[in-house]
Structure formats: structure tokens, C-alpha cells
Amino acid sequence: AYCLLTSHIEVTATSRHYVDRLFDPDPQKVLQGVIDMKNAVIGNNKQKANLIVLGAVPRLLYLLQQGSSSSELRAECAVVLGSLAMGTENNIKSLVDCHIIPALLQGRCMLTVCVTPCQDPTVIPHLMSLLSRSQRTQEYITQIFSHCCKTPEHQTVLFNHGAIQNIAPLLISPSYKVRMQALKCFSVLAYENTQVSMTLVNVLVDEELLSQVFVRMMQRDQPIDMQLTAAKCLTYMCRAGAIRTDDSCIVLKTLPCLVRMCSKERLLEERVEGAETLAYLMEPDVELQRIASVTDHLVAMLADYFKYPSSVSAITDIKRLDHDLKHAHELRQAAFKLYASLGSNDEDIRKKITETENMMDRIVSGLSESSVKVRLAAVRCLHSLSRSVQQLRTSFHDHAVWKPLMKLLQNAPDEVLVMASSTLCNLLLEFSPSKEPILESGVIELLCSLTQSDSPALRVNGIWALMNMAFQADQKVKGEIVRALGTEQLFRLLSDPDSNVLMKTLGLLRNLLSTRPHIDQVMSSHGKQIMQAVTLILEGEHSIEVKEQTLCILANIADGNTAKELIMTNDDILQKIKYYMAHSNVKLQLAATFCISNLIWNEEDGSQERQDKLRELGFVDILHKLTQASDPNLCDRAKTAMQQYLA
Amino acid sequence: MAELGAGSLLLGDPAFNYQEAELNERLKRLYPAVNEDETPLPRSWSPKDKYSYIGLSQNNLRVHYKGHGKNHKDAASVRATHPIPAACGIYYFEVKIVSKGLDFLSSLLPLSPIPGWDKHSYGYHGDDGHSFCSSGTGQPYGPTFTTGDVIGCCVNLINNTCFYTKNGISLGVAFTDLPPNLYPTVGLQTPGEIVDANFGQQPFVFDIEDYMSEWRAKIHGMIARFPIGERLGEWQAVLQNMVSTYLVHHGYCATATAFARATETLIQEDQTSIKNRQRIQKLVLAGRVGEAIEATQQLYPGLLEHNPNLLFMLKCRQFVEMVNGTDSEVRCFSVRSPKSQDSYPGSPSLSPRHGATNPNLHSAGADSPTCSNGVTPPNKNKSHNKYPGVSSASSSSSSSPSSVNYSESNSTDSTKSQPHSGTSNQEETRCVQTILTTVSALLCEVSKKCQTLVAVCVLVEDSCASRQLCGGNQAATERMIQFGRELQGLNEQLCREYGKNVTHKKMLQDAFSLLAYSDPWNCPVGQQLDPMQRENICSALNSAILESQNLPKQPPLMLALGQATECVQLMARVRSGSCSFARVDNFLH
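^ Those are the sequences you sent over. The predicted structure of the assembly is below.
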């Protein structure tokens, strides 16, 4: 400890010398002192901290603000302050505490201070007021805003301080840098912000609508950076609902511009940004997806994103290889994202994507890449394609995509898990040839564990997959599901706060309770709990869909041989069925009637007794009434049921 | 092209004329480098180059199918009137599918020497979205298209590729390595199929100008970044030499000396020689041609004797300047303006003409003719273009019936064509020529007839107060008439020595015909009086002097400029499309 202390004092002592020289009466010596200080602090965080502690900052600020200081000295002071600001968070805090911001606004070092998001709201009005001062201040201040604006709250703060009105005129500044920074600022402000976007569409710059100004900036002879950023602005405005997706400035300008950004001629960074922005633009709109899919061979163009680092670059140029390697992941994930977006609705586009060279292989290898970003994007792409019945039947099976998918599910962050399990749901649909091998790979345990997740999305996907799996499954699989899930968990899911989870759990129950032998078997072992759960749901506050699904379960139970008795002996349930037969909602009436119809079916043992009991309970009268119902389905169902009595 | 347009169109239709004007304007804007005299642009389908199953209507822009359409053999096509000129750089046209017929199969072929699916034809099919290239089997290319869709075809003659568009969206490159001389073509196969072409008659759905702007920027970038490499030093010396010789050539003596000092280069020609040339040029530009001839004969004896053509040109100009009242031979009669007063304003002020925008020349034009006669126009009525003076001349001094005739024909002529408009040049000059033969006949015959002319001239003086012939001086006018006779004599002499010279005859006729108008400044041949016209003769004289001194008659800068311009034109002829975006004008500011 002693030793350390000594060294600390020593460092401070040399630092002291630097600070002392700032107070020299000879301005020439002061200047030399500042220059030496500049050289001493570069890249040395400790030295920076020392100088700050020793009070260099107020002195530097004083020199900077002093009119008598030579411009050379002032410039050097600003550089040192900028350098100090490049250090640790603490250093920056100290600088801000010294009221550095108002003093430094003409200098470039401001930028480094503010690259770390500045939280002090009083700074913003001051910055706004400085916008009119010079092209320099305009450039830097807009750059500061773009850097600092990280959250919706930041957007709102800037918006409320009149950022739009103040920055819009800068879009037609004679300086390219100013135009560019103002444009970037708008792209940051408009991102996922309806309030800003709605305001932007009505802004006029020199009697021209802002969207038209952006369109001009996207002209093909403009610098790429400007085209891309302008396209981003319009994309964000469109996604926020401020511009219609069929507006010509989106269809004929923004979309083609973004497709151009994906071309081989662009830099790798530009291609990544272009693809990501395009994916975002068309995500919710099938028409845009269709247009993009035929624009400039986009689908084929994206295949090139997977060719980095290319074998050529490895041999010819180490620098290039390094560059390619750095961007390879980004390129792949961007391409996957764009494919996912392209194929999210249209069957033809999905077909086109899967027919692209080595596409399925690329997805398969993408699923097991080290980069989480790539894995996530690959699984998103797979998910998008898995919505196609045809692809599930063909390419998905041919490439055994379930294998890497299963592997991915073993150990992945939640966002990847959500996508992967959702894809798995589709792969478990009954017509999917992958269903069998997946079942054999021990997926049930995994899905059951998903149902215990804290994330509602994962619980839904887990139970959804089980539901799909149970559809028309054999007894062995059903038994396995029930065993693995456990009745306790099953009933916990039936009281899940998330209505989606509840719906899918009921769906699972319904699928488990299909075909007579299965019904009786399940009911014999779990009848009591199931009846209890059904009662609870029918009594509770639930949506029509949930109640309908529950009544359908009852109808299935009523179809069993022995299971029927569980209903017949439960007067409470019978009363509930009666209630729903007279419900105002036809769907519920239909399901309840179906249930009764199963109970009184003639050809089964004890049908006479059941018919009599139900007649006593007044069901015949209700059925009679229902034969007059306006809904033809309901009317038919009631008539069929009535015939059981007549036979 | 022209006969086609005339054959099928009503000339008086204003709507059509408007469309035609719009088409011309759009084509000019899109393809400024195309010389339509050499390579006309496609403007409609060709009624000659089509299958019989094809019907054309609506100014040959609408195509419909009138065959059986039973199988592929019934397919028919039509091509445009002209192939796509390489100088377009980037060419584009669109077709709107008005009706797709029963079983649609349509194709666009940017090329087909004889319409059809044979070699060198390229197309995009509507029914399957396939592209096909010189064969019947297609490649998957784009989406299908149908009624209401607008399909565009863009041929890039810079990289010889082609892409199609559908409803304003580019579908990406369809073909590469295209051969030259492509024709816009459309093919149809089923009854009921109708398509409308747009070769620029209407705005395009696809933003082709935006696409062009990208290529323009690319090519300009390429030129700007053209590597000079190791020859950098050499390059600089060449540039300095170009500037220096240019300054010397035009006699910017002081500037040239300063430039030579700054760049430490040498000037080939000596100072006095430059100054002499400068002096002569100044005289010509000031309209004092007589003095210029004198000075030339004095400083460069034998020069004009060896260049009889040049001498004749100078003398003709001198005559014109006499009419103008600027030449010293007539000006000495004028009391108001002593010889020394008027000179060409500014110091060395001759510069080659980039268009007609030389400020010095404009100011010269403004003050040199009016200053010399010293009369300010009391009421300059510009719309005044009937010639009362002429008609009164014919009534008062009707000694010669030929002059009556002539004045009549003149007045009809003047009402038909406004002076300086230059619209119907040929017609104008033909009319003028008939008059002129009379005038020149008058001049070279006996002196009696001269009096008639003088009478005309005097009468002119009364009616036109603004600018007056020979400064309005009687003696000067007589001198001018005499000079005219001498000039005529010179012409005859030259004819005897060197044979007939059409140019000389024309020059003489033009000059003399000035006298035929009451207001020569405001007549069909009045342009001769414009001081700007002095430039050509001035540079011809300058070049002749330089040549006689064994110096280049043209400055290397102009040579390089001319060569560059010629190269770009040559590029168009050898079908290099980038010429359209590498125009020399773009680099002259």
C-alpha cells in the first residue's frame, strides 16, 4: 500500500508541473505548457484524471474564453479539453460539472463530451439557440443530437424543444456536411416515433414538403450516404404510419433506393444497412414485399451476402480479408432478415427464396453460427419460410432443418428460443414429414420445460407445439405428453394469465381427448381434475373463444364410452350446458348442443337412460326451440339431436 | 421518319402539334448528344417493318393484333422506325398493355432486324415472365404482366446491357453483351391484344432521368479521376503552354507576358509582332476595316496580295461597315464624329466565341454604330417593319420599272418573315436573291442607274431617323457607291483570274442588298451589320498573319477543344454510348 501511495504522489507531482505552467505570466510559455499537456494526456486516462483533480479544467476554460488569448492558444486549450473528455465516464462528469458545455460550443471537443448521452435537459435549449450561429455549429450540434438521441424519451425531449422546426431549414444548407448531419438527425428522431413522423410529413422547407426534399436526396447522383439516410427517414415515417405504403415516394423511390443499396457495387456497411432498412420497411406490407421481390433481382442479389470472405480476398489481400471477415456476420444476418421479411406473407416469394442457390444449406449453417445475431436472423428466416405448407413438405424435410433447430433450442437466449420454438410449432403440424423424426428426438421434455418459462411467448409456443403434436397422434405419444407435462402443470396452464396460453392448452386437451378409446383412457385417469378445470373456466370471465373451446372439450368427453358418465353424474355441468344452449352467441349454442347430441346418441349403451334424464332436466324443450333457430347449422344440429328421441 | 410523320398525321391538329412539341423537347432533354440528322430517334412504329397480322393506329403508336392467334407461328411483331442511336447513352421506351387479348403472350424486343423470334432478338414475355435471347426457350426473369401494366425497356449503350421495368419498378438486368443497332420492337400473338407505345410522347412511369443521372455522375467521375500518373510534370508544362499560346494568339499581350513570367516559360513570338496583330484586330473589331487593310499592307507587305480571298472578304466587310457608317472612308465625311473618337472599346477584346456571350462584344455592338453618327433615336419603334420609305420611293421616283417591282416583292417578303427570326432561312434568301440580282445589275451598269439608288437612300434618310446609311451623309453615300463599284470590279477581276467563286458572289450580293432596304439594320440581311459579325473576319485575318509568320494559325487550346468535340462525335459513330455523358460542353464553364 505504501509503495502504491508513493507512485501516486509522484504522478501527481509531475502533473502539478503541467498545471502550474498554465499560470505563467508569459503567454508564450503558457502556450508551450498547453501543448506539452496535450502530448502528455493523449491516451493516458490516469494522467487525465490527475489533471482534472488538480484543477486544470477551470484554468483551461478561462484561457479559452479569454479574449486576450491568442487563437492558437485557444485552439490548443480546446484540444486538451476534448482529449480529457475522451477518457472515462468520471472524467466527463467532472468536465460537465465545470460548466464546460456552454463554454465549449464553438469547439469540436464538444462532440466527444456529448457522444456519451448527455442527460442535462438545460443543455438542449442552449444548443438549439446556437444553431443559427455558423455552419460549424450547425454541423456539430445536429451531430450531437443524433448521437445523444437513444430512447423515445430523448426523441420527445428534442421534439418538445422544437428540433424539427430548427433543423428542417438545415436540409437545404449550402454545406453538404450540414445537410447530411441534419438528415441523420431526422432519421434518429423519426425512428418508431409516430408523433415526430406525423409532424415531419407536414413540414415545409422552402415551400417544399419534407418528403419531397428527402426524395431529392435519394436521387441516384447524390452521395450514397445521403441516399441511404434519406431512405431511412422515409422508411421510418412510413412505418410510423405517416406515409402510406402505396405512396409513390415509397413504392417508386424509397424501396428501389434501398434495393440499390443492397447491390454488389455498394460498400459492405451500406449493404448491411440497406438490407436491414428494407426488411423493416416492408415487414408489414405484402404488396411492398411483392414489389421488392421482383426489383433488380433482389432475391438473387442477396445470395451474394453469403460469399464473404470470398476465397479471392483471402489470397490476394490481407487487408481486404480482414475487412470482409469483420462484416461477414453482419452481412449474413442482414440477408436473413431481409429474406424473412420478403417471405413473411407470399407463397410465391417463399418458393423463390428457397430456390435460391444453396439457400436451405445456408439457413442450416446459419442456425449453428457462433454469432447470436446471425442465429436469430437465420431462425427468423426459417420461421418465415415455415409458414409455407409446400416448403414444410419439401425443402424443410430434404434438408432436415429440424436437426439444427432442435440443437438451437437446447441452449439459446430467449429471443432466439421464441423464434425457434415458433418455427418448431409449424414443423410439428400433422402434414409435416419432419414431425416423426422430431418426436423421436425427445422434443417433448424440451417443450414441456418451455411451458414453465417466465416468458408468455415461450409458454405459448411450448404448449402450441404440444397441441400440434397431439393432433391425431397415437396413444403412446399422447400418454407421453400427459406424463411429461404432468397434470399439475397442465392445470396450472389452464389458469394462465395469458389468454393465448389458455387457448392453446385447451386445444391440447381437445386433441388429447379425441377418438373414443383415448377419451376414456385420459378421463379415467384425470377425469376429476379435468372436470374441475372445465367447470372453473365455464364459470370464469373468459372470452367467447375460450368458452367455445371448453364446450368442445365437453363434447369430446361426451363422445367417450365411460367418460360420458362424468358429465351425466355432474348436475352442475349439465346446468351449465343448458345455460350455454340458450346463450346469445351461436357458436357457444352450437358447441353445447353438440355436447348434448353426443350424450343422447342412440346406438350407445345406456342411451335411453341418458335421454330420459336429460328430458327431465328440460333439454328437449330447449332442443325444440333450437330447431326454430335462425342459424341453419344450429337448427340442423338440434334437429339431429331431436331425432335421437324419436327413434 | 419525316415522311412517316407527314403521311399519317393531320398537320393542323393543335393537340397533335402540342404533343409533337412535347416529344421533341423530351427527346432533346433525354438524348442531347444525338445528332438526329445522322441518327434519327425512334418516334413511332414503322408501318413498313411489320408483320401483316399487325395493325397500327393513333399516329402509329398503337399496335393491335389482327391474326388468328392459334399457335406460335401466328405471332407477329413490329419494330420502330429507327434503331436506337448509340449517342443516346441510355435509351428508354415504354409500352402500355391496353388489352391482353384472350391468351396473352407479348414480348418486347429491343432488337430485331426483321421482326420475329430469330437471331439477335431479345424479349420479355408477359405470360410467363421469362426473358428470351435469340431463341425460343426463355429464362425465368421477372413477373408476368397483363392489362393495365406499363412495361418499359431500357437499353444501356455504355455497358451494353438491358433491363425492363414494370409499372415504374426496375426488374434488373435481363441481357448483357447486346449488339449495336437495336430496334424497339413489340410482339403480339392473340386476337384482341392492344398495346400503346410511349417513345417520349408522355412522361415515363419509370424515372429514367434519375437512372441517367447516376451514369452521368459515374462517367464524370471517371473522367475526373483519370490517372495522369508519372506524366504529371509533363502535363503541367503542356497546360501552361496551352494557356500561354492562347493568350498570345489573341493578342492579350500584357496578360501573356505576366503569365510567362509567373510560369517561367517563353513566348515564341516577339512583343512588337503581338502588338501589331493586336492593333489590326482592334481596327477590324471597331469596324474600321479600311484602316485595318492599310495597316496590314504596311506591316505585312504581300500578305493580302497572296490571299485574294481574304482581301475580298475584308473589302466586302469594309463595304458593310460603310453602310454601318463606321468605316473611316465614310466617317471622315461626318462632322459629328472625328476619326480618332471612336475605337473598339476595351483593350484587347477579341476572344473566340463560346456561343455568343462575350461581354466586350456586346458593349461594342451597343455603342460603335450609334456613336459614330451621333444621333439618338427619338422614338425607336421596333414593331415598325413596313417600309413606307420604299413605297414612296417607288411612287416619287418611278424612273425604273424594275425598282417598282422590287419594292413590291420586298414588302410582301417583309410581312411574311420577321427579320432576325431565322425560321425560314431558305425561303428568305431565295426572295432576297431575286432582288439582289437586280441590285447588283444596277450597280455594275451605267451610272445613271446609280442615281435611282441614291434617291432611295435619301428617302430612307427621311423615314428612318434612328440609324442612317453612311451616317446620313450625302458625300459618304457617294463614296460608298463608288466603293461598291470598285468591289464589283475586284470581284470580276478575281473571277477572271481564279474562276467563278460562289461564296464571293453570295457575299457581294448580301452586302449590296443592304442598300435595298429602307432600314438596313432591320431587314432580312441586316444581321451583317451586327458588330459580332466582325469576329470571323478578324480571326481569319489574325490566322493569316500568324501563318505568314510561320506561327500556328490556331491556338493549341482550340485545337484540343475541337479534337475533343470531334472525338465525342466519333464515339457516337463507333457506337460508344458513354459519349452522351462525356460532352465537351459539360466541362466548359
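The first helix of chain A runs from residue 2 to 21. Residues 436 and 533 of chain A are 31 Å apart (CA to CA).

Shout if you want it in another format.
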